[in-house]
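Hi F.,

I've been meaning to write this up properly since the lab meeting, where we talked about keeping a consistent format for the predictions we share between groups. The idea is simple: the sequence comes first, exactly as it goes in, then the structure tokens exactly as they come out, then a line or two of notes. No screenshots and no reformatting. I'm using this chain as the first example so we have something concrete to point to.
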Amino acid sequence: MKKIIIYDTTLRDGAQSEGINFSLPTKLRLARSMDEFGIDYIEGGFAASNPKDMAFFEEMKKQPLRNAKLAAFGSTRRAKYRAEDDPGLAAILQTGAPVAALFGKSWLLHVEQVLKTTPDENLKMIADSVRYLKAKGLEVVYDAEHFFDGYFDNPDYALKTLEAAAEAGADVLVPCDTNGGRLTSEVEQVMKAVAARFPNVALGIHTHNDSELAVANSLVAVEVGATMVQGVLNGYGERCGNANLCSIMPALILKMGKELTCAPNLKNLRSLSHLLDEMVDQRPPRNRPYVGASAFAHKAGMHVDGVSKVSRSFEHIEPETVGNHRRILVSELSGTSNVSLKTGEMGLEFDKNAPEVKDILLRLEHLEQSGYAFESADASFKLLVQKVLKKYIPAFDLEGFNVVVHKESADSRATTVASIKINVNGQTELTAGEGDGPVDALNDALRKVLRRFYPAVDEVVLKDYHVRILDPEMATSATTRVLIDSSDGQEHWGTVGVSANIIEASWEALVDSVEYKLFRDEERRKQAEEEEGKE
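Output, unedited:
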């Protein structure tokens, strides 16, 4: 059985989804998370499209992926350029990525009416580009754009485009259903023809979801010989989106028995899915297969009775295999397993029957009902557990803060000053800070006080800041959830705060960010002492 390779294009194709815009810190965090999960290839962006994508590749040179291969996306050379002079190909090389995802035209409609070139010249463009990048030492994944439409228009020419790429040395040939309109039976028919024509070349599949068939089309392509599946987490992408990897990966592993690198980490799938939603400020659909909140929720009396006796009577897989959990809408029967799952993901071990687990569950359920979400706020959850277990020792106590925003005129720039009063080890401190906004000013004031007692706080860098409106129907009085992504150069962590007051929610997430750093430093210190004592 051949291993199936997962090629993720969330950071490029997913960014083309309406309403989604990745910041550089978000792209970096998502790339690291996908790398840890076990994605084989991560496409970082369109090399020649915008400075943000190039900035991402520059950052990745400093902190390379540990497991996945990084790919840079680009097109075949333009008709008027030689490959060695083409700016798009030069941009791919500039990224330093070891893999080039190169797309070219397969449909004569595009060749003649979009590119305004000849069929023969298009074949030369494909071959020249692939050959040039291979000569530079890159692995080349050739994406045959609009291949299925091109095949049904002129099968001989569509296959010639793949032949041009294969003869030039392409490592993988990937037919693309770019318009997303092909039926599963059509994809199966074409992929069989491609597999017969190229028996010694690795094949991939890239589908879009305009007919709600992207996942099915990807899976049938694997059934007839594709060994690489391209897609996007949560199915984001242009128009109706791309093939949803959060549905494809469990289907391949659990339904088709395929070998995937990420198989051991499949239990983290839901967390990865929710992390992406939080990072792009999207409200996840509850009925998302496998990872949605309602994917294993049961309400009808007969269903509840059945699943409580034999889970597979109304569940197609065990929810825990993808990091989800069963929900009984009349009575929550799986609370302890929910806590066990979350704590397990954080590396915390508890006996399911221990009374502490029930205490954590009650606290967790109360907070989640209030709007908290911990999938992308692992640090806040660890602190929560410490508080419930009464092992939490706060680094300081807040006695009050005040934020003043001043704007003199419509054309003037607003200024913000924050003053805070906190107690550190029995000593009361009062100070003020300035910033571009309320959160920035509070952060400045807090650090001014704490660095005298805890110099390590200067190592904490706030990498990203997200605000989610939880009940938009309440307009300006809506409850907000704030997520902060932080790093100290060794570790990355997320924290959460919830309040109808956005400044209060931000303060809560900010405090957790700093306290988690101090908590982890203390953990490391104790661990070092224990190891030293053993020696």
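Notes:
DSSP finds 17 helices and 16 strands in the chain.
Residues 329-334 have pLDDT under 50 and may be disordered.

If this format works for you, I'll send the rest the same way.

G.
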